[in-house]
Amino acid sequence: MSKTRIIAFANNKGGSGKTTTAANVGCAMAKLGKRVLLIDGDMQLNLTLSYFDEERTLSFLEEGKNIYTALKSEKDLGDFIVPTDYDGLDIIPSSSLMSGIEFELFPKWQREFILRKCLSPTVARGYYDYILIDAPPTLGCWVMNIMCASDFVIIPVEASPWGLFGLANMFDFISEVKNISPRLEVMGIAITKADERKSYFKQTLETLGEFDTARLFETRIRVDSTVEWSQDNSQPVVAYKKYSRSALEYVKLTKEILEYANR
Question: For a 10 Å CB count at each end of the chain, is N or C smaller?
């Protein structure tokens, strides 16, 4: 039985390309023959919307088939898994009610480990090779839950003048998490929305090169309008237009991630 590896995609800065990266890495992993479970941990529902239209996404709220319902009642997450249209790729949808998750977690015993507890039966079954969790752009008890449940964290960073804002706070937060969950490891920083023609792209690389707490993935995800078209069609770009520039870059990034996770 293979070991299930859990990877969080997190950045407290909005607009980092975090959800898009999680959606496409998950789909690319499945296309490479891995069994993958995605968990949408953001109240904005964008990871769920990457695979389902708005009507179907909202139905998961009505049916109680979402991460919020599971966490509130501390149930086995295996009961909330929904198959996608892609072989080997499942998802636990989010809910707009996740806006109140901090309130729900606060009074619980060992509140930082609720997600780990709910996820443990699924991990123990060993069916999935990878579980990818999309975290909201905040730093609080819920994101701490996500990181405490994870083996690795990947930090997508937008290559823009504002993209690095708050990154130091992110690393401070990760250090706090490691005090109670030492297994967590920063796998690396993934540069997204890169435009190599812009001067600030070089500045971004130089600044990130000064961080000694995380490596940079070699693959950079460049700006590509195909990503927006894929999102409009509720598909990851690696499935929507698999030979587009961004799709090929996401597949390359995925191979880097797999190589690191299996080192």
Answer: C
